[in-house]
Amino acid sequence: MTISAFVKRLAGVLGTSALVVSANAHAEEISFWVRAADQAFVEPMVKAWNDKHPTKVALTVIPSDDFVTKFGTAVAGGGAPDVVAIDLIFVPAFAQAGQLSDLSAEVKTLPYAKALSPSHMRLGAYNGKQYSVPFSAESSILLYNKQLFKRAGLNPDAPPKTMAEIQAAAKKITALGGGVKGFYFSGACGGCNVFTLTPYVWASGGDVLSADGKKETLDNPALRNTLTMYRQMWTDGMIPGGAKTDNGSNFINPFFTGKIGMMGSGAFSIGLLKKEHPEIEFGVAPLPGAKGGSASFAGGDSIAIPATSKNKKAAWEFITWCLSSDVQIDQFAKGGSIPVRADFADNTYARQDPRVGVVSAAMQSGRTPYSPYFNQLFNDPNGPWLAMIQEAVFGKGVDPAIKDAQGRFQQILGH
Amino acid sequence: MTALIRRVPARQLAGYWFILPCLTVTTLFFIVPLFMTIWMSFNQWPLLGHPTFSGFSNYVDLLQDSSFWASLWFTVKYTLVVTPAIFILAFALALLVHRSVGFVGFFRTAYFLPVVIGMTAASLLWTWMFNDQVGIFSAILMDLHLIDEPVQWLAETNSALGSIVVMVLWKAAGFTMVILLVGMQAIPEDLYEAARLDGAGRVQQIRYITIPMMRRTFALALVMSVIGSFLAFEQFYVMTRGGPFNSTITVVHWIYRASFTYFKLGYGAAMSVVLLLILLALSVLQLYLLRDDND
């Protein structure tokens, strides 16, 4: 083995892609990082690109929980990839730290710029510049088991329209016995609950952060009602015990057993359930508020070019391809997810399944909290958001939990 | 340089050449990083962006950070529970496998085997065994009709800590056992013979010969075990993620969090330095208390 070959191998083993990246600068190759949650739809997509284009894309999949840490460390060490798809909520933090390339001029050249998912575009903007564009979309919905609805004497075609109706339905479903429970949520996963719990708060007229993201607004009746609903369902035994320690690794698995009546989930569940569990008859509905209405988290990934990329031109070419119908319709919509372009919302695949209409509508009206401190506040397994949910639902109660969280939110936001 | 070499006798010079590889590795991987950490702790050092010198501000913040002290207190509690437990179990195991009788090699290997498994892999294995749905512990207790429904071992503070202690006992006792075994076998056999002639029983032999003769070994085993417990991270990170209610966060977990969740490397470095000083003080204290009277 030559010394340079050895060094390259060593670099590969150590995971420091810095050397590899510089070696690749001459080759026709761009590096692309995504989180593990996206692996299923990104791998075939990258393969499709590599089959057709002379510039090759080298994909690296990073464990979802470690993505921010790993990408942050790589950026600091000069080993960031040419293209990165990040959970949209983390874009402000990286844009603020000056780690992403300014794409404002390039975005202006896109004829469909105005049709791009508004939440993604808002989170990708920092100080008047655009640092990312949408890549994949994910909205939150209420997923429910139609078979259990029927068995419990509920109308499977009339899902709950208020939070009180959810609680009532959960009670009836739990009463079926035999291990059947009315409701499920991942009680030890902060990120999961931003996705599935805040929509109840929004739909009831409350919020968790001020519009500019600089202050917490936790002390409001909407959040109190939502947490109270969860706490009552927990104390009344309508939620399986495992919910308390589920850090998101069991996010949807309990629903696969056919013993869960309802849960907050995402658009991705439609494709997944149809493919893996055709035996479960399920419906999707908007997540309701206390007195009706509905709301959704507008999530998914944004795609960006790290500031250190040496292949910016090729990287942008790849990004525009990701936004084309080749990807958004022929790959994403076909697999059951939602395109990030409004002009693609009405497509053959969406027309085939009315449930896709529900998630698309949710995405269009979806909301996303804006904060450079999102990771510390909401995703950190030891952060204040999760501590609040745990104390409110399983611990000392809703009011003390909110009070504690207020102080800790402000501590982080005040920095 | 040549003057220096001339003054040092050739024999002594050869000695320096022998320690050179060790010295290089220690300098490169211990001394340099140590000083870098100390320097880092005097800076605001964001993971993204540029460091700025800030004097003692990280240390001042640290004094007021109740979460840091809470994690330190939890680590102390964990150490106080786990160290004696490992020690007693390891001593008992060492007594069992100390004499060369049939199958003793098999048992020594069996007790030591968990030590060679990575802590993360072991934690995952035990997370699975403690799981309420698929885990073996709840299943056994239910089959024995001792409980009616599965136990959420990792869902309550005390049972979560207890579960981790059990896992660590299984994982680490073998290592301490080997250290103790070495000390035990270094005790001259004639001491026991003399004691037996004087009519000492098995318990008396342990009480008056084995234990007093093993002070230094105990000191070594104890210091290593306390250091290991103070630096606990993987088992908590994997098995409880610091939960429930953030009640099982160890100090290293907190350092990791400050550095890689909050991206505050300078603050993480300051906490590391404080932890290093605490460990240093503790080790000195233990070695002093367990010193040989002949020292």
TrEMBL record, chain A:
InterPro entries: SBP. Keywords: Signal, Transport. Residues 1-27 form the signal peptide. SUPFAM superfamilies: Periplasmic binding protein-like II. Belongs to the bacterial solute-binding protein 1 family. This is ABC transporter substrate-binding protein.
UniProtKB/TrEMBL annotation, chain B:
The keyword Transport applies. It is found in: Cell membrane. SUPFAM superfamilies: MetI-like (SSF161098). It comes from the Bacteria. Residues 72-286 form the ABC transmembrane type-1 domain. The chain crosses the membrane at residues 16-42, 78-97, 109-129, 160-182, 217-238, 267-290. InterPro entries: ABC_transporter_permease, MetI-like, MetI-like_sf. It holds the Pfam family BPD_transp_1. The keyword Signal does not apply. It is a multi-pass membrane protein. Keywords: Cell membrane, Membrane, Transmembrane, Transmembrane helix, Transport. Gene3D superfamilies: MetI-like (1.10.3720.10). Its main location: membrane. Belongs to the binding-protein-dependent transport system permease family. This is Sugar ABC transporter permease. It comes from Silvimonas iriomotensis. The lineage of its organism: Bacteria, Pseudomonadati, Pseudomonadota, Betaproteobacteria, Neisseriales.
